[in-house]
Amino acid sequence: MTKEEKKLAPRYVIGVLLLAAALAILIYYLFFYREDSSFAVKDYPSVKHVLFISSYSESFETLDSQKAGIGKAFSGSNIQLDIEYMDMKRFNNKENEDLFYQSLKYKLNNFERYDVILLGDDAALEFAETYQQELFAGIPMVFFCINNAENAIRAGENPYITGAVEELYLKDTLDLAIKFQPEATKMVAIYDSTLTGQGDEKRFYSVKDDFPGYEFSGINSSEYTLEGFGEELDKISEDSIVIYMSRFEDVNGNLYTIPESVQYIVEHTRVPIYRVSVAGVGEGLIGGKMVSYEKSGYLAGSIVLDILNGADVADIPVVTKGEGQYCFDYQVLKKYDIDFSLIPKDAVVVNKSQTVFEKYKEILVPVLLLLAVCLCILFILIVDNIKRRRLMREIQKSHGELQETYDKLIITEEKLKQQYEENKNYIKYLETKEEYILYQAEHDYLTDLPNRRAAMEMLNRLIAAKEECTVIVMDIDDFKETNDAYGHACGDEILRETARRLLKLTDDRLFYASRLGGDEFMLIIKADQMKQDKELICQIKQDFAMPIVFDEKKHYIRISVGIACFKGDAADASELVSNADYAMYASKKLGTNEWIYYDAGMKDEALKRKNIKNILSEACRNDGFYVLYQPQVDAVTGMLDGYEALARLKDHAISPAQFIAIAEESEIIILLGRIVTKKVIEQMVTWREHGMELRPVAINFSSKQLQDRGYVSYLKDLLEENNISSNLIEIEITESIFLNNNEKAMKLFEDFSSIGVRLALDDFGTGYSSINYLTYIPVEKIKLDKSLVDIFLTEGKDAFIENIIRLAHCLGLKITVEGIEEKHQRDRVRDLEGDYIQGYYFSKPISGEDVELLKNPIK
Asked: What sequence ranges are listed for the domain EAL (predicted)?
């Protein structure tokens, strides 16, 4: 035995002695203590009901520890704990949240009121805040394991909400990592864009000021494919301290468990990977100071007990500090040759090669033998105690049976009659409940209209009977924007009022109204009479011309409508509804508030658009785009001033006018925007390497890209990584970006300005309110649309162009005139004192290589 082992030996002896003392007390209780109140009646408290809403699934790595902590806190209390799982880590989308909301709402409406709501992790807290008034009004709520501390503190200001933040011991872990890696100069965090990841990112950068001299950066897995993420990990240099915080998804929406992420990260890095959460330690991560999910659950459970015992939730402050535990992997410490003397004394070390029993078996063997003897004695006493208690239970049982027999003998005829009446009432209740469940299955919970299933059954019956009918599919225009701008409560009221107005139309008509889902409704007219259809259309237009008032604000509803008719042919219900859908989407292309009848060409057009959408998705995944650059020149000197970047498809002869419009109908435009941005920056780096003088490049920014909240940060990082000045990038926007998004748009402009990127207003003059926008948006340049040049840049009409140029100059703006294709057009723009010219007269869009061959000035 070594000296160190001899020093530790007394500690184990003391521990065994304490265990023996505890056994002695237990033996005394079992052997000598006899209770005399076997038949005493105990006063049990009433059952309290607590609902635990978890953000994740039952199989999520940290959930068992959370439930164990809650269980310890509730031990001995008369509490019934129910658990509902949102599963937002695997299905982080609005559809999943809506399904969870519908399911929970149904359960809450059919179950007695809960006394307290427990909220596990960020998604559950956000859900509870959103639906507090509708689902949890007046019920205390306790959150825990929240990553976004700002959201938690803000939520704690609500008089019905309190809880605890999931404290991440970032600073403690990074302090120790510096001791482990004294040569390190960089700190890199791995996170994603989930709610958990957003909180992790904020916390990582919040400690940046505590480590001056270290370069901080992050890898957001949500912005990369699996392969791209691996490439970013491979780039991490050996002078980096890397901390893995969260990585549950990639840019394609693929989901990953913690073990999968740990394995992939370890395979692609050459440095230790630190962790501030226990999940993953022992599987390749070195470790760090950990969050205890069991203690977090215990703390939340204790707060619940305080509330159930009379404490006012408004008086309970949000807990922002917790207890942590250092935990490390022995094998990883050895792999990176870490000095074990640097490990804190109270740290837990896993994956050790030698067990405690192997180290101290000389002491433990005789002690365990003694313990075995004690256990034998204890077993004998327990058996005796069990026999005694069994005898007492038999006596109690006999007493109970005698009492039960006596009670049966005194049941009167009146009681039997009462029981009979109660049974009849219960049977009626069951019949009513069955009718209710059937009604719920066939009707929409929000609008009380028949749902899609009921409507399709109705339509199938009409078609099977060869009855002529007309299907009308309606979609509320810009509903999502209204919902985002004014909240779900406003959106729900618009849907309910829409349903009420449709129900009014059913009077005196062979008419059936239903909600297909979302903001889409379907009407079925049980006759194919065009005159009646036109009367109905006029009636609907009149009804929807009236505004819907919510929260003292008027909302004017516009709808796109598609119409398809069945005249006894072989079409089925699904095909008929699809035809009406095709017509409805065709009406959207024409603008809002349009009505269109289906024709066969619409289906072909829809399939063609779907094919183009598939091509675009494939191109986003496999580098299927390239960028051309159209020069912009000084109107007076002809000197090259800059370029506009224009996206093109590599392997398909599809015009930008086609594929850009289709990309803007989906999330593809967000990916395409980032692809074009990255290719532009890479091209500028190539130009610089070839000795070219860099000039500004304009990048188009769609209104749909407002949803890309990380775009400005993405652009900023690209510029910094490649040492490109931000004033060489110009973002071109159109006035469509302001429709229902004014507040978001202004925030975006502020973000662009903060990093030094310039703004230009494209397609000026094509909208009805462009001049109004110029009074408050921070653009430096406007671009005059080609359609105005073709109409007004002619003799006798060019005063219009001249006035627009003067207006721009009066506002301190530069103006670029697009679509210049003739010399006389160029000369006239110069005479009118326009600033810049762009068009085929100087150059068509050309490749980056051809840009290097341009001569300056351009003739």
From this structure: 609-859
